[in-house]
Amino acid sequence: MSSNERPSIPPLFLDRMSRFLGEEFPAFLSALEEEPVGGLRVNTLKLSMEEFQKISPFPLGSSVPWAPSAFVLPPSLPSTGNHPYHLAGLYYLQDPSAMSAATLLDPKPGDRVLDLAAAPGGKTTHLAALMQGRGLLVANEIKDKRVGHLAMNVERWGAGNVVVTNETPERLADHFGPYFDRVLVDAPCSGEGMFRKDMGARLDWSPEMVTGCAVRQQNILRLAAKLVRPGGWLLYSTCTFAPEEDEEVIIGLLEEFPGYTVAPLPYHPGFMRGQPDWMERKHDHRRAETLTGAVRLFPHRLRGEGHFVCALRRMVEKASLQERQPQGPWRASGMVEMDRGQVKLWEAFLQDMLAVDFPESRLRVRGDRLYFTPEEIPEFGNFRVVHPGVWFGNFKKERFEPAHPLALFLRKGQAKRTLPLAADGNELARYLRGETLLSDGPAGWTLITVAGWPLGWGKRVQGVMKNHYPRGWQVYS
Question: Whole-angstrom Cα distance, residue 225 to residue 177?
Fold first, then answer.
C-alpha cells in the first residue's frame, strides 16, 4: 500500500454496523469516507467566547451544541496548532464529539474531580474550565510517554486547580477510596469512532482487539467505581461503537456494584440513545433498559467523530462499596511552606515583576520549586506527582527564577514589565524558535506577550532579550 493510500475499513466491522444501523448504514458508510471534523474550544479561564471571536485569526464554523465554549472548524484550515494564540493557551483543538464527556459530567466549581486516563489533556482542560479553576482536579496518566504531553497542555491552559499524576488506577483506588465527587474514565478502546481520522485504528482493528479492550475497560471501571463518594458521579466514555466495549462494560459494573445506577443523559440533536438490544448476552431486563440513558455519537448524525458516553450515579444509601471518607483538607507529602529566605526572594520578584498577589496559603515548596496549589491539596504519599499545582519557579542562590507555567498562568495586565510582539511578526517567530532579540528597556525578567496575552519569559540584559522559552515548546515552522 502506498503512503497516499487509505487502508480499507475492516469488512467484519462494516458487517456488524450494517446489522446495527439498518437503514442508517449507507449514510454512516458515506460519512466514514468524508474528511474528519475538527473543533476549537475557547479557554474561558482566560477570555470569553465573544473576546475570542473578535481576535480569531481564522474563520470559525458553527457552535458545538453540547459544548457552549466551542466551535466546529471549517475544513482545510492551515495549521492551527502552532499559532501563537494556541501556544498562549487561548484555545484547545479537539474533536467536537470528544467534548461531550466533560460537559455531560458537569463538574461544579469547588468539586473534587478525577480524570483517570487524562492524556493528552483535552478532557482535563475542559473540566478545568467548567470548574472555573476552583476545587481540585487530579489529572492522571499511567503511561510515562504520554504524561509529559498532558503536563504541557495543562500548563498551557493556566488552571490553578490541577494536579498531574503518573499512577496506576489500582494505587489511586487503594489510597483515596471514595474521595471524589466526580470521576471521568475516558477508557482506552478499539478506536472505531476514529476510523476516518486515524488510519492506524483501521489497520489495528480486529474482533480480538475489541474483546481485549473490553476486559481492560471492565478492570479500569471497577477501580474507578471505588473512587466515587456516595452521591457522586462516574462518567464512562469511549471512542468506539462496539457494544462489547460500551453497554456490556456498563452492565458488568452494575451487576458487580448494585449501588450504582445509570443516570439518563441530556439529549442533543444527532445523539443516539444507548442500545441494550445490541448486546449479545442476555441480562436482567430492567437493568438493561437503563442503558438507554447513555448516548452514542455518530459522524453521519452530527458534526464530529464517534463517541459513547454513559453517566452513573453512586447511591448514598445501600452502597455496596466499603465506605472510607478521607478527612481533609490534607497536606501533600514533600510540600512545605516557604522559609524566611524564600519568602524574601519571592516577595522581591513579586514587587519587581508582578501586579497581582497570590494567597500565601496556596504557595508551597517542593525541593527548590515553588508551586501554586489547588484550594485543597490531598496527601499523595509516595505517588508519582508530576506537578502538584502550577509551577511558579525555582529558588536559586539569592534569586528567584520564574518558570514557564507561571507566565501562562498570568492574565492580561498582571505583569509590570512586558514585551508585546505582533502575532504575525518576525520577532515573535524568532522568539518561538528560541532566539535572542534586541530590546531596549529596563533590565530584568520580562513577560513576552502576543495581543496582550502572556506567552513566555525573557530576561533583558544590556539591550538584549535573552530567550527563556522552553526548548521542548519551541516552534520552527
Answer: 9
Secondary structure, 3-state, 16-80:
HHHHHHHHHHHHHHHHHCCCCCEEEEECCCCCCHHHHHHHCCCCCCCEECCEEEEEEECCCCCCC
The amino acid occupying position 416 is K
Closest CA to 294 of 315, 270, 263: 263
Residue 436 contacts residue 463 (beta carbons within 8 Å): no
Average pLDDT over residues 354-380: 94
**How distant, in Å, are the alpha carbons of 94, 460, 467 from that of 344?**
42, 22, 26
Residue 127 near residue 101, CB atoms below 8 Å: no
Could you tell me if 70 and 40 are in contact, meaning their C-beta atoms sit under 8 angstroms apart? yes
* 283-327 per-position pLDDT tens digit: 888 999 999 999 999 999 999 999 999 999 999 965 444 444 444
Q: Which of 189, 213, 239, 310 is catalytic?
A: 239
Q: Where are the domains of the chain?
A: 11-314, 417-477
For 144, counting Cβ atoms within 10 Å of its Cβ (0-12 exposed, 13-18 middle, 19+ buried), the class is exposed
Enter the pTM of the model: 0.95
> Tell me: the pLDDT tens digits for 159-210?
999 999 999 999 999 999 999 999 999 999 999 999 999 999 999 999 999 9
State yes or no: pLDDT of 391 exceeds 70. Answer: yes
User: In a 10 Å sphere around its CB, with 0-12 CB exposed, 13-18 middle and 19+ buried, how is residue 299 labelled?
Assistant: buried
Residue 310 falls in the annotated catalytic set? no
Distance CA 235, CA 187 (A): 10
What mean pLDDT value characterizes the chain?
A: 94
CATH of domain 11-314: 3.40.50.150
Residue 76 pLDDT class (50, 70, 90 cuts)? confident
> Which residue in the block uniquely carries the three cell numbers 453517566?
311
For the 417-477 domain, the top CATH level (class) is mainly beta
CA 298: distance to chain centroid? Answer: 22
What's the pLDDT at 81?
A: 83
Question: In 116-206, where does DSSP find H-type helix?
Answer: 122-130, 144-157, 169-176, 199-204
The conformation of residue 394, written as its DSSP 8-state character, comes to E
Residue 79 C-alpha cell reads as: 495549521
Measure the CA–CA gap between 121 and 186, rounded to whole angstroms.
Answer: 11
CB 112 within 8 A of CB 134: no
